[in-house]
Specification:
Blueprint: H1 4-11, H2 15-24, H3 37-51, H4 56-72, H5 137-175
Helix pairs in contact: 4-5
Amino acid sequence: MHTFADLAKALNRSAVYLSGLQSRFELPAFDGAGYPAAYLTFLQTLVHLRTLGITEETLRDLWRMEKKLMVLLHADTTASPTWFLDSCGLVTNPKRRLLLTNYELGAGVHDEGVQLSLNFAVSAPELFAGREMGEDALRVLNDYRRLHARIRAEVKAEAAQVREAAAWARRMWAVGPIS
């Protein structure tokens, strides 16, 4: 478990910046050492993607899609306040996991199908089915796939520039420490 100050230090970001991320991504805030490791991993993913030039608006769109997809797939089985982050940091089956939440779909993100009928959560029945209310997991998944593919292409294009910047920084550091 981490404190808010631990998060800021680990990410090399100010408390104001992190507080803004919490607000814009509608993340829960905790007192003391109440932040699980998965929370830090999620924030690291956001910082890495921002470093690679992915706009925060794009990340928020992806975040909303992932949360919506997880709701449609009934992924909340723990009633944890961070249930949508609890898979962050897991490393098994990366091709089957969503980018930000790291939730495993049970099939490759870009495969043709996902087993949508599984419902692991006990919940009150709805008056209308989700599809009748305009919620279709396949539609959300297809929207997600398009945005995910665009982000991957942008990351691939920017990765070479980031590698060059890191090499440049090493050469700059070799000259002497920055005061």
